[in-house]
Amino acid sequence: MSDKETIDLAGKIRSLLRQDKREELSDLLDSLKSNEVVYLMSKLGKRNQHKLLTMINPESAADVIEELPDIQAADLLEEMDAGNAAAIIKKLNSDDRADVFSELDRKEAEAILTEMPPSEAESLRKMVGYRPDTAGGLMITEYISYKASFTVKQVIDDLRKNAEKYKNYHVRYIYVVSENCKFAGVLQIQQLLLAGAEQKLSEIVITEVTTIGPDASLDDLIDLFDTYSFYGLPVVDEHNHLIGVVRRNDVLEARNERTAIQHLQSHGIVGGDELRSMPVMI
């Protein structure tokens, strides 16, 4: 997109904002590529950026926030009403949610947490507590798990019933837990579909699965994904409770970001303080 096209588009968005055209704004943003959204937001100015995020639905606003550097996204959320900010944060993927939240001012962060359901607020507090270069900092919590006592039919029925909820989960595996919620193993979707309807998950689950703790370092994760062709690794706490999944793509992205930062440092382009607020473009 040329500068002229971006300026024209920014003018169109300002016009839609003045006319309160919410649906048209959402449709227009959905039609743009990620880098176009970031560039466009830089042309709007902070007042219109805030108005845009509060006017479109929270899911569309979350899509915009995910494309921005974390510190810029946090700055925008801090200027919003806590209730509106909480509605947007709830729609972010769990790893993006933690990254953005860690950049918020403490007072604003607490105000947003009070607007969230207690269980979601507690989960977010825990995720923010992990270092970003660890399994806990990189994991997602959008995974699907069932108890080992469930039958194949019950699982398939639930998947169909909640298809809209699960559509963005990138489902390749079903995670199985025991009655006391300890991690028991995994199932590929193919295995599930080929099993008998009345079979219990405990009968077909793969129990020999590599897991990792939330404090495992990025280097540990890189070694594992370089050694094995895992799509993702289950993350378990000290009690063997499943708390998240680290995906291969997220580990590779974190490695690339670290390499880019090290390159900049080695050439004296940026220092440690600058890196904390600098978006790294890969």
Tell me what you see in this structure:
The structure is a single chain. The protein is mainly α and 282 residues long. Helices cover 58% and strands 9% of the residues. The chain contains 18 helices and 5 strands. α1 crosses α3. It is globular, with a radius of gyration of 21 Å.
| Radius of gyration, CA atoms, in whole angstroms | 21 Å
Number of extended strands: 5
Gap from first CA to last CA = 19 Å
Widest beta sheet: strand line-up: 1-2-3
Helix content: 55-70%
Summed over residues and divided by their number, the pLDDT gives a mean of 87
What amount of the residues lies in strands?
5-15%
The helix count comes to 18
Helix and strand element order: HHHHHHHHHHHEHHEEHHHEEHH
Shape descriptor: globular
Task: Please outline the major beta sheet.
Answer: 3 strands, mixed
**Segments where pLDDT lies below 50 for 5+ residues?**
272-282
Q: Helices and strands: which structural class?
A: mainly alpha
